[in-house]
Amino acid sequence: NAGVMQNPRHLVRRRGQEARLRCSPMKGHSHVYWYRQLPEEGLKFMVYLQKENIIDESGMPKERFSAEFPKEGPSILRIQQVVRGDSAAYFCASSPGTGYATEAFFGQGTRLTVV
Amino acid sequence: AQTVTQSQPEMSVQEAETVTLSCTYDTSENNYYLFWYKQPPSRQMILVIRQEAYKQQNATENRFSVNFQKAAKSFSLKISDSQLGDTAMYFCAFMVFSGTYKYIFGTGTRLKVLA
After folding, report:
1. CB contacts < 8 Å between A and B, how many?
2. Over the stretch B53-91, which tens digit does the pLDDT of each residue have?
3. What residues contact residue A71 under an 8 Å CB cut-off, 6+ apart?
4. Which residues of A touch B105 (CB under 8 A)?
5. What is the 3-state secondary structure (H, E, C) of chain A?
6. Which of B6, B32, B101 sits opposite A95 (nearest CB)?
7. Chain B contact for A32, CB < 8 A?
């Protein structure tokens, strides 16, 4: 059973471009979370999705950021018109979502650098 | 607000010795889970140990154990017989199911094991 797969591992974008980060959850997992880690900081919650539904996006910036988890295919975190402050590591985690407080498994992250 | 505080930004320990990383949290919930994650230079988030808040017995996982003080909202991690491979960032996190499985992370403690 492959773990949570994120790609690309590294992404460089110029200011104003769009960044698309992909996350394939573990097999059988229907819940996906996105977190952002700024340098020397912990992980900050961004959004929680189930298949075709955004459950909690309280950590998402109101503008330029969007996320989806379609019925087929990976979850996508999209950042439009990137700025230098978007440079960070973005982690995806997945869980089966059944039962109370199931463990989330993390991918290796995508390091976004905006130049 | 639910918060996690790790008051030790950096720590070091001699190989084979014992070290304790501190973590405090704040929540008004009664049922929740607590976690310690390890993040080595590879950036992979690795679950070290978890504790259910309703369990009084402290969790243990080989050389890793926790001291869970629910009334004090404290959740420290003890690493015994430290090894060079334990060098990493360690994040404390907790999760309360309040309609979503949202993990709240501390800012981390950078642990260096010295040969």
Report:
1. 64
2. 888 899 999 999 999 999 999 999 999 999 999 999 999
3. A51, A52
4. 35, 42-44
5. CCCCEEECCEEEECCCCCEEEEEECCCCCCEEEEEEECCCCCEEEEEEEECCEEEECCCCCCCCEEEECCCCCCEEEEECCCCHHHCEEEEEEEECCCCCCCCCEECCCEEEEEC
6. B101
7. no
